[in-house]
Write a structure and sequence with these properties.
This protein has 7 helices and 3 strands. The chain is mostly helical. The longest helix is centred in the last third of the chain and has 55 residues. It starts with a helix and ends in an 11-residue tail after the last helix. It has a 3-stranded mixed sheet with strand order 1-3-2, with helices on one face.
């Protein structure tokens, strides 16, 4: 077992995986219902006044733009998650490193005993060692799942709060369509609500504690 196994497990839970999703929100708008097609045996009916009124209610798109990645990376809550996550990852790294050292010593001891133990005794020793290796592998996979789940759950709280704030800002601005900044090359700064959303998210959710499951 090599340290790289654990390092690969940690990389599977990197922060960027939790913040790469874009955001596209649309405020409720009224849409005109499609008029039923006239029966072949009946003459087509004129457009009803109600249908014309509904069509008149349709609003032109009023757009706002937000840099989702920036909020998810640079908000105070996200920074607190990153700090706690790194501490948890380092704790698991030390634990796994200690188990790997123990395995290496056990392997060296088993190699030395090959010439002095009977075949049956050596086989028993080898089975015990293989069980220890399997246990360490299981521990690595368990720690990996904990890191992934803990990080994803914490970042989901930030994302939920951000969406709520974006919805509030959109209503205040009268925007009925919010798009992710990453989808565009150029954006008028008047459409960008990133700073406003960032400030409100920081006030509403200054930090998020990691919910690490008991093991």
């Amino acid at each position: 077992m090599q340290v790289s196994i654990f390092q690969t497990a940690v990389r599977a839970a990197v922060l960027s995986a939790a913040i790469s999703a874009g955001l596209s929100l649309a405020a409720p708008v009224a849409f005109a219902q499609e008029a039923p097609k006239p029966d072949a045996a009946k003459p087509a009916e004129a457009t009803k006044p109600a249908d014309a009124a509904k069509a008149a209610e349709l609003k032109a798109p009023l757009i706002a733009v937000i840099d989702v990645q920036k909020v998810m990376q640079e908000s105070n809550a996200s920074k607190s998650i990153t700090k706690s996550f790194e501490a948890l990852r380092d704790t698991y790294q030390k634990e796994i490193s200690g188990l790997e050292d123990k395995l290496r010593k056990g392997e060296d001891e088993l190699r030395k005993q090959q010439t002095v133990l009977s075949p049956d005794a050596l086989a028993n020793k080898r089975r015990d060692f293989e069980k220890q290796v399997a246990d360490v592998q299981k521990t690595v996979q368990t720690r990996k799942r904990v890191l992934e789940t803990t990080l994803n759950d914490a970042m989901a709280v930030v994302h939920k709060t951000m969406v709520e704030v974006v919805a509030d800002v959109a209503r205040e601005r009268g925007a009925n369509l919010v798009l992710a900044r990453q989808q565009f090359v150029l954006v008028d700064t008047q459409l960008d609500v990133t700073d406003t959303v960032m400030d409100r998210v920081n006030k509403k959710l200054p930090q998020v504690a990691l919910n690490v499951p008991k093991q």
